[in-house]
Amino acid sequence: MKWRGRRGSRNVIDRRGVSAGKAGGIGGVGLIIVLVVGYFLGIDVTPLLNGGGVPVQSTKTRELSAEEQAAGQFVSVVLADTEEIWGRVFPEQVGRAYRPAQLVLFSGRVASGCGGASAATGPFYCPADRRAYLDTQFFATLQNRLGAKGDFAAAYVVAHEIAHHVQNELGILSQVNEAKAAAGEQRRNELSVRTELQADCLSGVWAHYAEAQLGTVEPGDLDEALNAARQIGDDTLQRNAGRTPMPHTFTHGSAAQRQEWFARGYESGRMDACDTFGTSRL
Q1: Residue 19 maps to a domain
Q2: Could you give the angle at the alpha carbon of 50 between the alpha carbons of 45 and 53, nearest 5°?
Q3: Considering the entire predicted model, what is its pTM?
Q4: Among 15, 31, 210, 246, which residue has the least CB neighbours within 10 Å?
Q5: Can you name the residues that pair with 131 across neighbouring β-strands?
Q6: What is the domain count for the chain?
Q7: In whole angstroms, how far apart are CA 103 and each of 69, 177, 204, 243?
Q8: Do the beta carbons of residue 271 and residue 89 sit within 8 Å?
């Protein structure tokens, strides 16, 4: 992906230099293992990250490493691309202006409009404050532990979270949340899968225009995104965690489904091709 030296977004809020002090804690390889376990199983492992202690209500600042600075620049450029693309697509396909999201970079833990979260939560979008949240350490986890290498795989992660913002702008997330409130666990999981697959499809729409209009997609980039979709499919994650894949527990969709819906958005470039809620076959 061609991203170096390109324009970044002004909607990035970088909180990585400020962190809350904690009693106890783990680091190094132990931290990575905990993050991966949490991501695989969908468990909030904040108590493990805290070392069982109570966070100290103080903050400390630190200098960002060269790797962190580069990751921040990368995210800023990808976010700018999403703003440019959705800024064009919304008037053309929806008939109104697009309101960009803010993206918060954090290290370890963060407070959001949806409550507190830790790095173990993984990247997420909060509809309450219209912000996406990302610990850039997840890029290393994505590459080294989940087997999804390449800068376009990382860009896909950013595009997917912004796709949730697109859903929020369209009023889809509020409708899904209302339906979930009145549903049983299996139906809630199904609605979650349809939401995530639609975000994958909208990420594909972003990739379509990143290639066609911005010219930033290089040979091999789409393979990186499709591989990332495969590696973070629910069946792949459950299998890698030593579990037998159980479709009724899926919350994001299988590897094949995630790849298929991303490809559908990429090939069509159309938001209306991403109606995962109107089809009986995912």
Answers
A1: yes
A2: 125
A3: 0.84
A4: 246
A5: 102, 126
A6: 1
A7: 15, 22, 20, 33
A8: yes
